[in-house]
Design brief:
The protein is α/β, with parallel strands linked by helices. It has helices at about 15-30, 40-50, 75-85, 100-110, 120-140, and strands spanning about 10, 35-40, 60-65, 90-95, 115. The chain has a single domain, classed as Rossmann fold (3-Layer(aba) Sandwich), CATH 3.40.50. The chain is about 40% helix and about 15% strand. Strands 2-1-3-4-5 form a five-stranded parallel sheet.
Length: about 150
């Protein structure tokens, strides 16, 4: 169980509304983990590699990744994460509106750790965040966050 220190969460999401909902859902779920947000695939990789302007960015213990991103798609970001020796052990959860079977199959083929279809209703999103938190931070043993 990972209760010693809060785990950093990186949300890669371009929709301001979805970011706001995720933040509120985390607060309502009493999730104490810190949430960092980037809005496109290029920012995501700069954040993860601690490149400017993210030189002091924390290393996330969990990534929540939307597939529909500007500049570099979520699938491209996932491919880069899982091909990078320093990043591939970070659990990456696809959190997207896409129900397309091809997206699900491709995401798992690129080694996504799970695939969640984003609910549109706020109360259901709160429940999803609560379940994600419970699974990844209460049940699962995560790798050290070095």
């Amino acid at each position: 169980m990972n209760t010693l220190k809060p785990i950093e969460i990186l949300l890669i999401e371009d929709s301001p509304t979805d970011v706001m909902i995720a933040r509120e859902a985390l607060e309502l779920s009493k999730v104490m983990n810190r949430l960092s947000v980037v809005h496109d695939g290029v920012q995501a990789m700069a954040f993860l590699r601690q490149q400017p302007p993210y030189a002091d960015a924390p290393r996330p213990g969990l990534i929540l990744l939307d597939l529909n991103l500007p500049k570099r798609s979520g699938q491209e970001v996932l491919r880069e994460i899982k091909a990078d020796e320093d990043l591939k052990s970070i659990p990456t959860v696809i959190l997207t509106t896409s129900k397309a079977e091809a997206d699900v199959v491709r995401s798992y083929g690129l080694h996504a750790n799970c695939y969640i279809i984003k609910p549109v209703e706020f109360d259901k999103m709160v429940e999803v965040v609560h379940q994600v938190h419970h699974f990844w931070f209460c049940l699962v043993t995560l790798p050290p966050n070095d």
